[in-house]
User: Fold this.
Amino acid sequence: MAVKPDQPARGGLSGHRFDPFGNRASRDIRNTLSEAFVAAWQGAGVDYAAVADRLRRRHSQPVYRAYIARRLEAYRAAADDRRNLDDPSLLDEVIVLWNRGLFFEVHELLESHWHGARGVRREVLQTLIQAAAVYVHREADREPAAARLGRRVSARLNRLKPHLKAIANLDALARALVTPQSRPPILRGNKH
Assistant:
C-alpha cells in the first residue's frame, strides 16, 4: 500500500494514516465534517467551521488535524468558486466540489437529491455519486474496489451522455474511471 506524503504509515495511535474504511475515528470525522459542510452549502445554517473545531478538540492526533485542515481549506476554496457562478445548477455545484477534490462531499450533496429522484434523473444522480466514490476509493488506496466500480460507472456514463450535457468533458471522465491510478479529470461545465 502506498503511503501518501501527508499521511504517516500505519502504526500506533499517533502514527496511523487517515483511513475512513478501516478506522472508525477517521470515518466519523469524514462523515461528520462532510455532512456539516453540505448542510451549510445547502443553506441549512450549519457552521461547519465550528463542527471542525469540535472535531479537532476531540481528535487531536496530527493525522486527524491535518485532514480537517485540508478539508477546511478545500471547503473555503469551493465556496469562493461557487460565489463566482451566476445561479448555479446542481451539476454546476457538483463540478465545483469535484474540481476541489471533494469527492465524498459530491456524494453527500447528490445523495440528498437522489433519494427523491425518479427515472433517468435518479440514474444520473446515482452514476455521478458512484463516479465520486471511485475517487474516494482511490484516495484510500483501494484500487481493486475503484476499478470494479469505475468499469460499471464508465459504461453508464457513456449510455447516459444525452442526459449529462452539462459536463463538457464527460468522455475524459469515463476514460479516467477505467484507468487505474488515474487522477480525476478537472470537469468543465457546458452552459447552453
The chain has eight helices and no strands. The helical segments are 24-41, 48-58, 62-83, 90-99, 103-114, 119-139, 143-159, 170-177.
